[in-house]
Amino acid sequence: MLVVALLSTSCLARGGISGEIRTNIDATLEAIYTASVETLRVEKITIEEDKSDAMTALVKGRYADGTQVTIHCELLTQK
Q: What's the whole-model pTM score?
């Protein structure tokens, strides 16, 4: 299974990243979605929107300073 994960933020202060990061991941959509939600919780990013279905997942959050974080995952192929 191949999933594309997109991390979008106005300014990811800890990494100095601004804009979007795209990557293809050889894992199930469910595994990527679960890891994304858990990572936001561990980093103490407030989750404002959290939804998924069989083909996509979307998690939106915000750092305490107001910086937005959006993670969008999309299933590309199935085995």
A: 0.74
